[in-house]
Amino acid sequence: xxxxxxxxxxxxxxxxxxxxxxxxxxxxxxxxxxxxxxxxxxxxxxxxxxxxxxxxxxxxxxxxxxxxxxxxxxxxxxxxxxxxxxxxxxxxxxxxxxxxxxxxxxxxxxxxxxxxxxxxxxxxxxxx
Length: 128
What we know:
By secondary structure, the chain is α+β, with helices and mostly antiparallel strands. It has one domain: Dimeric alpha+beta barrel (Alpha-Beta Plaits, 2-Layer Sandwich). The protein has three helices and six strands, in the order βαββββαβα. It starts with a strand and ends with a helix. The relative contact order is 0.28.
């Protein structure tokens, strides 16, 4: 089955208070357990706040390291899930049930199966 990444975005301007975040935590546990119970959960984690981000770029052979995300946006990447489902419609259904989807957004993207890419198996075997 194909895998999809569910990228969880929250609004920068409307962040939850610590009390609201704590009250929402059981909803996330239940959601994650529902993915496990359905047999579709591959991976998933929350990310620390955007202030902890560091961006690395290499330009003209020079490494540039800056604090913070790559660009300022109205939403921040809060976490992700990787799910293994039959198709995009199934992935969208799981995304629509996410606890934060009412105030943020979920970007759903298919994961490339590198084992299906021409020459990938040869490269992987050569590096093993």
